[in-house]
Amino acid sequence: MASPVKPRLSGWRYKWYTDNYSLLGTDINWFGAGNCGSFYPAGENMYFWKMLKLGNEEHLTQAQINKVYHLLEKSYNPVAFKNAFGSPVEHLKGDVNYNLTERYHTDMIFYYNRASFPAAPECQTFMDEWSLNNFPDIRGSKEIWEWDVVPSRSYQDMALYWFKKSFKIAGNKGVYIDNWAFDPSYNTMMTSAYKQTNGKIMPSTGVWKMREYTKRIFIMMNQLHMKPIIFLHETSTEILPIDDFATVRYDWEWHYSQGDVQDRFPRSYILMVSTGNLPGNWPVLLSDHGALEGNPWTQKTYLGVMIVHDLLGSIDTWVPQLGKLWKTYKEPFLKMAQEKGLIVYNYWGDRKQPFYSKNYDFPTIIYSIPKQKALVGITSYANKNENVDFIIKPEILGFTNYKVIDINTGKQIDVKNNKINIFFKKHDMVVLKITKE
């Protein structure tokens, strides 16, 4: 009962992509203080948010963009900004240009965090209620580093006040919350943490305050007649009581660039968490940034695992190697997902499979428009190169005579007695097209 079932909108698994959402990751992208703990623009200057909304609606001139940059430059703490981002001037200039031009006609979602920052007046006022400890050590601090909090009632009130302003003034369409997972709290006044007989404090997870926070956001957005886009990032877990009022989830930051994606996540984890099936969250994945982001093979394993598990919501095609592979392997599925009559056969599903191998290391996904065409995605989880037999049930797809084509090479594959054989390198991916002959 902690996670009531939410209605599934048509095409919910792809809506992040099809509805053209845009995540403004970290507060610097919507002109906050640049420390991942902001809720309002630098200096509480609403001009920055008005210009962000204007850039979302029309093409700004370079003079308009330069004016925003120069005003922002005066509003930032250059020392703190340099500590966070390196070169403050060049980084800030790039961020301003990007966010005032590249958000054009997208549905912007603002980044927030389970945090504040010591120099914020509200943080100085409410630090005893927000602190993860009984005695916060930031009193009088003028620093702007990220300070993790207990999302107490006063923190929620403050956040909702600024969320509402961002919707109205900045054109923000939702709330992304970073680090939304258990962070042990030793605050015995504001959470259920308590002192044990040995004198040590048993920390609290804060789960019910986190649940109440997302619930209040969900209710407010509904009251404002907005689609309640509440986007949580928990990195490598799924906590149902705090996911129940969320609508989108972000996954796969865990194990960035640590080799083939097949070796990073158990399939049971992907099915239970990454797909968003349990709480009914739209699944969105982070691209594989890091040391191997320029490695074509790593990116191919990323796409292979993504496609087979029907995780097509991500739009991070700006990773160059991923973008090159995206067009060949992923776009055909995204296009077919928009067609009427689509039937999807997941390897973990209960319905009879029209295309499969008896080897469990080669899971498949099939997109079918009956009697017309089908797409088959196959990913190898084997730890060696293998020749693999696949069985085709054409009657399920509505075919009598058909042909099978490898979409990468464009070559037709020999079919004998409704069986084909494909050679796979370890962790390779193949996408096939089946059409009437």
| Tally of separate helices | 14
Strand order in the largest sheet: 1-2-5-8-9-10
Taking all residues together, what is the mean pLDDT? 91
Distance between the termini: 51 Å
Q: What's the main sheet like?
A: 6 strands, parallel
What does this structure look like?
This protein is of the alpha/beta class. The chain has two domains: 240 residues, no CATH class; 94 residues, Immunoglobulin-like. Helices cover 33% and strands 19% of the residues. The chain has 14 helices and 19 strands. Strands 1-2-5-8-9-10 form a six-stranded parallel β-sheet. The protein is globular, with a radius of gyration of 24 Å. The N and C termini lie far apart (51 Å). The model has no long low-confidence stretch (mean pLDDT 91).
Question: Topology of this protein?
Answer:
Layout: H1 15-18, E1 21-24, H2 46-57, H3 62-75, H4 78-85, H5 88-101, E2 107-113, E3 115-116, H6 121-130, E4 147-148, H7 153-170, E5 174-178, E6 194-195, E7 201-202, H8 207-223, E8 229-233, H9 240-243, E9 248-251, H10 267-274, E10 282-285, H11 296-308, H12 320-329, H13 331-337, E11 343-346, E12 355-356, E13 364-369, E14 373-379, E15 386-392, H14 394-397, E16 402-406, E17 412-413, E18 419-424, E19 429-436
Helix pairs in contact: 3-5, 7-8, 11-12
